[in-house]
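Materials and Methods. Structural model of Solute carrier family 38 member 8 (Amino acid transporter SLC38A8). The 428-residue sequence of Solute carrier family 38 member 8 (Amino acid transporter SLC38A8) from Cladocopium goreaui was retrieved and submitted for structure prediction as follows.
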Amino acid sequence: MAVGLDKPLLGNGSKGEVGSTVTATVINLLKNMVGAGLLNVCVAFQYASVMGGLLIMLFSAFVCTGGFLLIGYCCSKTGARTFRELWRSAMGAKTEKTVDVVLFFHTLFSCVGYVTMIGDFCIKSASGLMPDSIFARRRESSILVISLFAIFPLCLYKNLDPLKYTSVVGLAITAVSCAYIFYDVIANAEEYGAVETLQSHFWYVQLDMFKTLALFNGSFSAHYNAPTYYAELKEKTFFNYMKVSFYAFGIATLLFTAFGLAGFARFGDEVLGNVLKSYSPDDPMIQLSWGCMMVSTVFNFPHAFQRMRSSFNALLNKGPEDNFIFTTILLLSASVYMGVAFKDIAVIKMIKGATLGVSIMFIFPALFFIHLNEPIRFKRKCSGDINDPMSQVRRRRRAKWLSVLCVIMMITGFVQGALALMVHYNII
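The predicted structure was written out as tokens:
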């Protein structure tokens, strides 16, 4: 097993050790969920209408929060501090490779999405700054040059500490870009017909609504790191973890909804998967946003790539740095090839949400709880007097209902993912 692939942030997980407060953990979780992916939620309202998008957003937030809470509950009972440890406690060590498979494809799709966005931002920026250059006409040229001279050298870092502040800068850049979109649509609402757009698209039903659900699920995807957030807490109690979950998912829901509606109101049926691509290159602020977002994405790429490389080596039973150069070239080439092939970041995010998203957020947490729903397998006793017959009855009743909900979560997760893919590929 590769060392350091699934490493927790802090020490041994005991209550009271040095760690993060609830507020700090909420901020870290929001940084994981809310980033450049915020730019993809606008098109989801085109798929499902305004009211349909709002209802699907609420449903997605509810079930995603439920899955996140299930993972934290299992961690509080087993003492697991990483997803791998939780899988081992619930499913056994023999199937542990599943974690490496899921993590590899999860990070692969993230890297492909980054490459796609780099191509988007570069070609749009060049179309305004260098309209006659090859970079304004062929996105693959931009991707290849940036990958060779910027991304590849960064991927050769074995220690990413020098890049630890870039995610904060990236969030700041995203925040400024999103704030400009809010300002633009509010200041020019009458010119754009923003209110009329929302009214004319207020309600309709079409199969594309399942793509909306997959997109929203992908936006809330932070479940693989849920055990790490539990281990990060200074006081590791499920109550504190609940507060982190409700605050973070609540804030993220408001941000996704407000920004999604604002972007859709601005562009209506012309909105693209990356809302910044919908703008004209004549706007200097948008040109600046494209350039800054491209730089931010380049610096965020190595974080996902390092984990993809480690998980790939783990699948081959090698250390995280074995065959370092060859593996780096191989995986970066695959990411670049797929990033050139996929031209819409919303499609990548939808596929990721419909497959890996439903697995990590719904199916796996439900399986963990069902397999661990035997008091003898929990390292910590449940609340209540274990010698009190009524307490035992209450625990069994609660566990039974939770198991039923877990089965429903698994079924709905599988069905919604399958429907999203079938709709996208015109099977139905």
